[in-house]
Design goal:
mainly alpha, 3-stranded mixed β-sheet, 10 helices, 5 strands, globular
Length: about 300
């Protein structure tokens, strides 16, 4: 046996064997988790009637569970925020806009599903709708799974009119209709699988952080931006069908961009499309939206 000049005969070779064995185990662990992630992905894909695409929704996340989570979040928000008087003029106007949008969900869902050769899901029929206006400078609104909604008073001066408010509220309702909450939870499970794989395979924290960053820029953030684009389209069709003017969407997002002061992060590192991209997409959708308005707007005297 060759002797090491420093008296360490054989140790270098043995250490190399240990490192090689550890490397093989690491790859086996990573391959095992990759196989599980692939199985999870393909076994939880469902067809979305709003997009015609197959999306990831964990089969264990039912609509009732989403509703329960939405209600819990809503109660927490209302315990921390200050809703305005429900009998105030602004609260009544916002509830009226919401009701007009809700009344058109059925026909819009059926029309969009038919465009993709699919049947409407109808899961929204079990929603327990509720709408509040919250006193805040935020130019924002939300609709949680299950139909719990709120509009912040800061949105009103930026929107300037009921048509623009309807575009925003239609967008938020669309997130709930598209089950984006369940899709995000399913995404998070995939992320957790990746984190477990990294930890159990012996990656150091810096390596794990680099992998998760790559996953974020390559998968999670584009997925989030696609959700926003989908909600823009469905929300615009809802607003149009409910006799609001969808053309108000473009000046609305111009004002939203001005209100942000140009402080939005670059699109590739953001969960939302930048205002320019959004306006471009909405402009392209306008002929379709106007056709929806002509077909489904049944309000007497509506232009």
């Amino acid at each position: 046996m060759r002797q090491d000049p420093y008296g360490r005969s054989g140790y270098g070779q043995q250490g190399g064997q240990r490192r090689g064995l550890f490397g093989n185990v690491r790859w086996l662990i990573l391959l095992g988790f990759a196989g599980y992630a692939a199985f999870y992905w393909f076994s939880n894909r469902v067809e979305d009637p709003y997009t015609g695409e197959k999306v990831l929704i964990d089969g264990s996340i039912g609509v009732e569970e989403e509703k329960a989570l939405g209600l819990q979040a809503y109660q927490e928000i209302l315990s921390q925020e200050q809703p305005v008087d429900p009998n105030s003029q602004i609260a009544q106007q916002v509830r009226g806009i919401a009701q007009r949008l809700i009344n058109k969900i059925g026909v819009v869902e059926a029309e969009i599903a038919a465009e993709h050769g699919l049947q409407p899901s109808g899961h929204w029929k079990s929603f327990d709708w509720d709408v509040n206006v919250i006193q805040s400078d935020q130019a924002n609104a939300f609709c949680l799974p299950g139909g719990k909604m709120a509009v912040y008073t800061g949105l009103i001066p930026v929107a300037q009119n009921a048509d623009a408010v309807a575009v925003v509220m239609g967008h938020e309702i669309a997130h709930a209709l598209l089950r984006h909450g369940a899709q995000r939870m399913s995404q998070q499970k995939l992320t957790q699988i990746g984190q477990m794989a990294g930890a159990m395979s012996g990656m150091d924290p810096q390596q794990q952080q680099m992998v998760m960053a790559a996953m974020g820029y390559g998968y999670l953030l584009p997925y989030a931006r696609s959700h926003e684009t989908q909600a823009d389209e469905v929300g615009l069709m809802l607003a149009a069908a409910a006799c609001f003017n969808p053309q108000e969407a473009v000046p609305l997002w111009q004002r939203m961009g001005e209100a942000s002061g140009g402080q939005a992060p670059p699109e590739f590192s953001s969960t939302h499309p930048n205002p320019g991209t959004r306006i471009q997409n909405l402009t392209a959708l306008m002929p379709k939206a106007m056709a929806y308005r002509q077909k489904f707007c049944t309000e007497p005297g509506a232009p």
